[in-house]
Write a structure and sequence with these properties.
The chain is of the alpha+beta class and 370 residues long. Helix content is 46%, strand content 16%. It has 2 domains: 186 residues, Jelly Rolls; 103 residues, Orthogonal Bundle (Arc Repressor Mutant, subunit A).
């Protein structure tokens, strides 16, 4: 049977740091059990301050408030949690969105979940771990993890990071209809391609800094107030603020976004490049952009940033490579080589071939085959 009680983030943080200083880090569950056995808990969460709107607080005041937030025991029977964390373990039935502050210096434990998780570094840095590697995230980094991603997120004693949790079952209905096609496409692409993570860098990359995008920071503050000061309107407001947060991330920081797979690799661009290699003969920018749910302009920038070339240059290079192979290893006529390499016009093919290699296709064949 679930033991329902509440402690504060400050209590958890203090106890975790004490154990870490002895060289014996404890798990989240072990810390909760210690506080429970000491009697240092409340049967109901403490009332939170409502002196002013949270989205008007300066960062230091908001950070202090985060440690006052209640930490509720989300697991049953005191058994250590398994690898899977369900939305029902964290989010109340009436809520779509939930928020929590990360406790520093606890034992690393890779896990998966059935909800969307948005991890945000507000001060210092954090470590997003996958099966094969760990990515260091700085203040201002926002990591959106898809359901099923095997991961963990850790912070040090002076760092501050939060997590916004959104039910998978309502993510599409609550957000997709309100996001631009380009923004919604990122989430569709990620879920179709398997579990992974979108990473946005919104601020300074220097360690020890504070989240410095004030508009996004206020949206985060507002979401936390709606989550922890609930009334009949709170969940709808939280969803609206979350939609604004996702939209502003895309609008202002989408150019610097990367997509990591559940091993920590940049799977998004690898999938795009693989698709280009498999379809180069007839591919166009508009078709490629539609396939991956991006706008043509964004797709063009994405390719240029990752390869240093535009799509036309990539396609031409692949066509020319195929033409070289056919000229070297087959007896096909030049017009047949042009068609198999993806050219409708033999003259156009010959001009591009000579421009790239300084020699005509026919001369190239003679030179190669002697």
């Amino acid at each position: 049977m679930r033991k329902v009680f509440s402690v504060t983030g400050w209590q958890m943080r203090q106890l975790a740091t004490e154990w870490a200083d002895t060289g014996q880090k404890k798990s989240f569950q072990e810390l909760l059990q210690m506080l429970y056995e000491r009697g240092e808990y409340q049967s109901q969460p403490a009332a939170l301050p409502v002196r002013e709107r949270w989205d008007q607080l300066e960062p230091p005041a908001f950070f202090d408030l985060l440690w006052e937030l209640p930490v509720v025991n989300p697991f049953s029977d005191w058994r250590p949690p398994g690898d899977v964390v369900a939305a029902e373990d964290l989010i109340l039935t009436r809520q779509t969105v939930f928020g929590l502050v990360y406790i520093p210096e606890i034992v690393r434990r890779l896990h998966i979940h059935d909800f969307f998780e948005i991890d945000i570094v507000l001060r210092g840095s954090g470590r997003l771990s996958f099966e094969q590697q760990t990515k260091v995230c700085r203040a201002g980094d926002v990591c959106i993890l898809f359901p099923g991603a095997h991961h963990d997120f850790e912070i040090g004693p002076e760092d501050i990071a939060v997590s916004l949790v959104v039910r998978q079952s309502v993510f599409a209905s609550s957000f997709f209809d309100h996001l631009s096609p380009e923004a919604a496409g990122f989430f569709v692409t990620g879920t179709e391609g398997g579990p992974g993570c979108l990473v946005f860098s919104t601020g300074s990359s220097e360690e020890g800094t504070v989240f410095d995008d004030r508009m996004l920071f206020r949206l985060i503050e507002g979401i936390f107030q709606e989550v922890y000061q609930p009334d009949g309107y709170a969940d709808g407001c939280a969803v609206s603020l979350m939609t604004l947060l996702l939209s502003e991330l895309m609008r202002r920081h989408g150019d610097g976004m990367i997509y990591l797979d559940d091993q920590g690799g940049d799977a998004g661009m690898m999938r795009v490049l693989r698709y280009i290699e498999e379809n180069y003969r007839t591919l166009t920018l508009s078709v490629l952009a539609e396939r991956f749910h991006y706008s043509p302009a964004y797709m063009s920038r994405l390719i240029k940033r990752h390869t240093g070339k535009n799509l036309v240059q990539l396609l031409t290079g692949l066509k020319m490579k195929r033409a070289q192979e056919l000229l070297t290893h087959t007896g096909l006529r030049i017009d047949e080589v042009a068609e198999m390499a993806g050219y409708e016009s033999t003259d156009h093919f010959s001009r591009q071939f000579k421009q790239m290699f300084g020699i005509s296709p026919g001369s190239y064949r003679k030179g190669e085959n002697g």
